[in-house]
Q: What sequence folds into this?
């Protein structure tokens, strides 16, 4: 870990070096999976400690849970190639969320109700510590239906084998419920109401209205659709991967999904099919009405709050009872062309898991990479405080630049120089795209140049800019500028950005960067 | 007697249908209006017999994906011929071969599965990638491409397809 304190505005360059890997999580080679394509031996882009299988396509994290002290991660996987298709639930387990053991796929087509695909879903731990998985299956008529699977053998701590209910599908579109057969997917973790009935929501839409279809059950097998959705919003399009969970109004601890005590609020997150962004709101779950009501002032659209303002989709949380925290997983897709994906033989990674909790303001969530990541740290490099002159670049040496855990903070003193924030600049991503790392500013850009080549022809800039906003308050913009990340013109070099909820006058701007 | 009376209205109804309905033009025109290459879109679909019986946008989209596949296959054959004719262009032609191959083995199957099973965003991605592959192939010649028209056609067909699928999201 590199630890430094700086003042003023500048860049650090982490030069791309070759050498011994310093941060390496393990994911042992699959023995059993058949693949039709072999991967190229030259693999400069594989990550050091992000979750990814040895080869092929992955997307949504599924059924995330902990059972008998072991973490389970299932995920959408194509056993046949590096594009989306032939989807099954691949399965890995871990004791620490960082080092993983792969198992055979847990769920793959085997019944009429999933013969054409085993799509996303979630795990619920039923009373008596009995996991149950709900997932979307594609039936012989290519309709989206919901199926139940439970472990074959509860005494296998790895839960390698699963059996499906002979009653599947337990939920299906029909003439009565009028559910759209191609817009009915991604069941959530279920929660138990005060009436002892289970509830689950499934993403859907009616024309342009996104909705979370609500189903209830007494026995987890017979499900009845509620007359109204848990929540819906006009104009948002299809809701994929909904996630609905309680958060505590004090402290950093997570809550069991069925918790609804006095000190709880609820969060509803949806992934928007239209825009490939997610948004969430904080609100109240009314058990009497079985409805979710976002708090006053919530933005319900692509412009709403996100767990992650970068390339991030299909996220899913679970309650980790072992450490009393809610943990967030999410999928990051490739920026490369399909031609490159096929050549390298893989596509997609899972983002670093994060702990998630409600901010003390009660208005948004806060997250931090799970503490277990720090186990991977070796070879600490400390750089003493430096005063940074405008336009300068300082190289950080002694680190393997492609695998680093960086903590840095910036202390700004001369705020008078800050340029004014144009009131029309409301889209931070657009602002970062227009004012990239090479555009000079008054207070900024300052930050990191990560994954930089020796001649600085390629680099990924993660940086801040400070503007003067209204009422003499300062606005901090954070950007992840990929416009120069690669000389390969095929790559998606979208720039991302967000306004930060921090007052730079009173707080240092601190940045943690996991480079892998 | 009853049987004859029952049949009659059907016969009359068919006779009154304007001829354009047989070509499924309203669906084709409506769909193609959502794309940046209306003329090309209509021409391609009208010349494909399957479009006459396409019932919805999904069916139209699947036809377009099949056209991408056919054109990419044609591109591969043409590239093989050009490799013999222009040995000096071997390197960019080989790169193009890889790209059109990726369209056929990667983008097309992904798009077909996404459309038939109801997760169209993956079909949008696949179609957009197909356009990118054609563009990248063209760029590989640094301005001296022998297949500019072909690459543009493949690009445009892919963009049409992506636009059509986006309306299904």
A:
């Amino acid at each position: 870990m590199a630890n430094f304190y700086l003042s003023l505005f500048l860049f650090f360059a982490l030069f791309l070096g070759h050498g011994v890997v310093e941060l390496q999580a393990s994911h042992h080679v699959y023995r059993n999976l058949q693949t039709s394509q072999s991967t190229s031996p030259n693999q400069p882009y594989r990550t050091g400690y992000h979750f990814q299988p040895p080869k092929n396509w992955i997307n949504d994290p599924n059924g995330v849970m902990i059972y008998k002290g072991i973490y389970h991660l299932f995920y959408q996987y194509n056993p046949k190639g590096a594009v989306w298709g032939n989807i099954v639930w691949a399965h890995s387990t871990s004791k620490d969320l960082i080092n993983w053991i792969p198992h055979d796929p847990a769920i793959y087509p085997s019944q009429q109700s999933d013969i054409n695909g085993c799509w996303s879903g979630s795990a619920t731990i039923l009373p008596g510590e009995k996991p149950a998985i709900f997932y979307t299956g594609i039936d012989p008529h290519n309709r989206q239906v919901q199926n139940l699977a439970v472990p074959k053998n509860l005494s296998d701590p790895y839960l390698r084998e699963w059996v499906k209910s002979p009653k599947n599908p337990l939920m299906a579109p029909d003439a009565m419920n009028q559910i759209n057969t191609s817009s009915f997917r991604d069941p959530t973790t279920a929660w138990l109401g005060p009436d002892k009935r289970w509830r689950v929501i499934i993403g859907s839409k009616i024309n342009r209205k996104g909705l979370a279809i609500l189903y209830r059950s007494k026995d987890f097998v017979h499900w009845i659709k509620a007359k109204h959705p848990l929540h819906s919003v006009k104009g948002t399009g299809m809701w994929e991967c909904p996630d609905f969970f309680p958060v505590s109004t004090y402290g950093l601890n997570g809550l069991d999904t069925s918790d609804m005590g006095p000190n709880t609020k609820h969060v509803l997150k949806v992934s928007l099919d239209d825009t490939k962004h997610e948004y969430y709101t904080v609100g109240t779950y009314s058990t009497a009405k079985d409805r979710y009501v976002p708090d006053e002032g919530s933005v319900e659209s692509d412009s709403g709050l996100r767990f992650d303002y970068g390339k991030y989709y299909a996220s899913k949380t679970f309650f980790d009872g072992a450490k009393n925290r809610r943990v967030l997983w999410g999928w990051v897709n490739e920026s490369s062309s399909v031609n490159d994906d096929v050549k390298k033989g893989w596509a997609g990674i899972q983002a670093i898991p994060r702990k998630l909790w409600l901010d003390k303001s009660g208005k948004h969530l806060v997250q931090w990479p799970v503490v277990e990541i720090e186990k991977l740290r070796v070879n600490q490099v400390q750089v003493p405080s430096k005063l940074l002159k405008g336009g300068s670049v300082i190289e950080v040496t002694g680190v393997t630049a492609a695998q680093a855990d960086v903590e840095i903070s910036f202390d700004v003193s001369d705020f008078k120089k800050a340029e004014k924030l144009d009131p029309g600049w409301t889209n931070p991503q657009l602002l970062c795209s227009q004012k990239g790392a090479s555009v000079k500013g008054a207070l900024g850009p300052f930050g990191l140049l990560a994954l930089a080549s020796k001649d600085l022809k390629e680099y990924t800039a993660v940086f801040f800019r400070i503007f003067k906003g209204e009422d003499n308050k300062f606005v901090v913009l954070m950007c992840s500028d990929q416009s120069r990340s690669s000389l390969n013109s095929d790559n998606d070099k979208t720039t991302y950005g967000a306004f930060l909820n921090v007052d730079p006058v009173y707080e240092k701007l601190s940045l943690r960067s996991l480079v892998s | 007697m009853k049987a004859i009376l029952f049949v009659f209205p059907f016969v009359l109804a068919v006779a009154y249908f304007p001829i354009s309905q047989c070509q499924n033009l309203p669906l084709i025109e409506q769909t193609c209006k959502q794309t940046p290459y209306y003329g090309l879109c209509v021409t391609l679909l009208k010349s494909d017999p399957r479009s006459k019986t396409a019932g919805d946008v999904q069916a139209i989209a699947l036809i377009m994906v099949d056209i991408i596949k056919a054109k990419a296959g044609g591109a591969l054959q043409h590239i093989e011929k050009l490799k013999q004719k222009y040995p000096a262009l071997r390197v960019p032609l080989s790169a193009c071969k890889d790209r059109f191959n990726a369209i056929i083995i990667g983008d097309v199957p992904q798009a077909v599965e996404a459309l038939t099973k109801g997760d169209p965003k993956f079909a949008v991605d696949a179609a957009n990638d197909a356009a990118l592959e054609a563009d990248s192939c063209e760029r590989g010649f640094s301005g001296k491409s022998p297949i500019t028209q072909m690459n543009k056609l493949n690009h445009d067909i892919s963009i049409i397809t992506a636009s059509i699928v986006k309306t299904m999201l």
Remarks:
- The radius of gyration of chain B is 20 Å.
- Confidence is low (pLDDT under 50) at residues 1-21 of chain B.
- Chain B touches chain A at residues 98-99, 101-103, 105-107, 109-110, 113-114, 116-122, 125-126, 129, 132-133, 136, 139, 169 (CB under 8 Å).
